[in-house]
Design brief:
Helix content: 40-55%
Number of domains: 1
Keywords: Membrane, Transmembrane, Transmembrane helix
Structural class: alpha+beta
Pfam families: DUF4321 (PF14209)
InterPro entries: DUF4321
Number of strands: 2
Shape: flat
Protein name: DUF4321 domain-containing protein
Radius of gyration: 17 Å
Order of helices and strands: HHEEH
Strand content: 15-25%
Number of helices: 3
Largest sheet: 2 strands, antiparallel
Organism: Anaerovibrio lipolyticus
Distance between the termini: 9 Å
Length: 86
Amino acid sequence: MKRSYGTLIVFVIIGAILGGIIGDLLTGVDALSGVMPYLVHTYPVLDMTPATLNLYVIKLTVGLSFTPNLMSILGMVIAIILFRRY
């Protein structure tokens, strides 16, 4: 099976999403209540305000924001390890 950059990007995006979801699910666990605020605190890396293009028939608004937390970064690292292993 040939590995490509596109597959790596898909792995990293899925890892980030799953890491963020797992982090949100673990916020309700009482045993982790002391450490979870640090793991799910978001850090804004890229924040582009939405830009609007009005063509009088279609109005298009595009914006981009990248605000990972430590759990999503951990998910990305695990995804890269899994990608390199398989």
